[in-house]
Amino acid sequence: MLQRTLSAAVLVFACACASVAPAGNLPKAPLAPREVKLFRGDGTAASWSELVEAACAAEVVLVGENHGHPLGLASAAALFEDVLARCERASLSLEFFERDEQSRLDDYLSGVSDAATLERRTQRSEGNYPPGHRAMVELAKSKGRPVHASNAPRQYVRIVSQKGYEPLQQLSWEQRRLFRVPDELLTGRYRDDFDRIMTPSGRDPQAADEQARLARVFRSQQMWDWTMAESVFRALERDEAPVVQVIGRFHSDFRGGTAQALERLRPGTRALVVSYVDEDAPDALPADDVGRGDFVLYAGPSAD
Predict the structure, then answer these.
(1) Does pLDDT of 150 surpass 80?
(2) What are phi and psi of 267, to 5 degrees?
(3) How many CB atoms lie within 10 A of CB 110?
(4) pLDDT for position 2
(5) What are phi and psi of 94, to 5 degrees?
(6) Helices 208-237 and 189-198 meet at what angle, rounded to 10?
(7) H-assigned helices in the chain
(8) Helix (H, G, I), strand (E, B) or coil at 243
(9) Cα(303)–Cα(58) distance, rounded to whole angstroms?
(10) What is this structure's pTM?
């Protein structure tokens, strides 16, 4: 089970066993991963083949996912499969693996360990290693391509939230290579949206106590953004392209967060933002989703 092929994983996502429905009340057929409706960020219609072509022409593909969404992750895995088929230097970078887990990933990719050992050593579960992520890792392994554990370990992020960045400067080189302290705290829409989303209902985000709390949380958010951006930057320096970074979509929507940090680290990087939206497909791109990504895909609501 742990070493299922991509095709088996896709079947888990895209197909479901169902009892026979009465005539005239047949359930809607589930979408295949490559059949999700998509638009360009400007609202024009787009096809799957155009998405793949654009991904292959990019240096970086930021795949903004909804964590654990079955069809969305199956579609993201299908996109990575199609990129791998055309781009021999492509690689994978994953938010859900932290940098101190890289050697364990490498052990699995190189055949030193098996899948069960990888999952035990990295404490994987269906929650933090859903079938879509597993399928992507298996695809990279089958092609001999790198997989990067791109995120900052949580023990360092907790220090940032509680005490700020300064204590991290006192750590050893071996510890400091596991994260990137932000060069600057990003502003603009990303910070505004962060404050709005992270402020509880009924609270004023501009109140002094709320601003202090939001600042602490945003420091942690930025450590994730800059660490993942640096991980992608390092992969580009090793001549990998496109680097497919799979990430929670808030980190990359509207070219905020990780996309902003990558642009600061490597100005002019050809980065393609792909955003999966967990809503039913509209007839036209809603105004709220214009510019959300270079491509915006609708995978439907997550099942409860």
Answers:
(1) yes
(2) -55, 140
(3) 10
(4) 38
(5) -125, 130
(6) 130
(7) 6-14, 48-57, 70-86, 102-109, 115-121, 131-143, 154-163, 173-176, 189-198, 208-237, 258-265
(8) strand
(9) 32
(10) 0.89
